[in-house]
Write a structure and sequence with these properties.
4 helices; 4 strands; DUF6325
């Protein structure tokens, strides 16, 4: 059974893949919480042209090589161009796809109970912060 799968596009100004986020991802994988399925790096130049980057193209990407134990190539060229739409010119992104191993038992229970997940969405951090602050002001005031 496949647990729920998520993706995240992490943007960077220019071409600044320095590997600093790798330890956090490794921690999640080693704890058995996620399984990284695919990682692709995307560059958008000043003209809006998009390039996908492989690990051996840039030294800064080497720390990511050990994370792709899943299904490299899972992301299609179309996926990359859709992801690139959120990038401004002269920026880059890491496009991560992972399986939420922590949710596997829950997903199995949903299926076995005859249920179907109809919708799910990640709520942006800033939206949650603002909602909690608003709620705190409302209940304090």
């Amino acid at each position: 059974m496949i647990a729920p799968v998520e993706y995240m596009i992490v943007g960077f100004d220019g071409n600044h893949f320095n590997g600093e986020i790798v330890p956090a991802i490794v921690d999640l994988a080693e704890a058995g919480l996620i399984k990284v399925l695919d990682i692709v790096f995307i560059l958008k130049d000043g003209n809006g042209d998009v390039t996908a980057i492989e690990f051996d193209d840039l030294e800064e990407l080497e720390p990511f090589q050990d994370l792709t134990g899943g299904h490299p190539g899972l992301l299609s060229e179309e996926d990359l161009f859709v992801a690139a739409e959120v990038l401004e010119p002269n920026t880059s992104a890491a496009f991560f796809v992972w399986e939420d191993l922590w949710a596997a038992n829950f997903a199995k229970a949903i299926l076995e109970s005859g249920g179907t997940m109809l919708k799910g969405e990640r709520i942006p951090h800033q939206v949650v912060v603002e909602a909690l602050e608003f709620d705190a002001q409302r209940t304090d005031g």
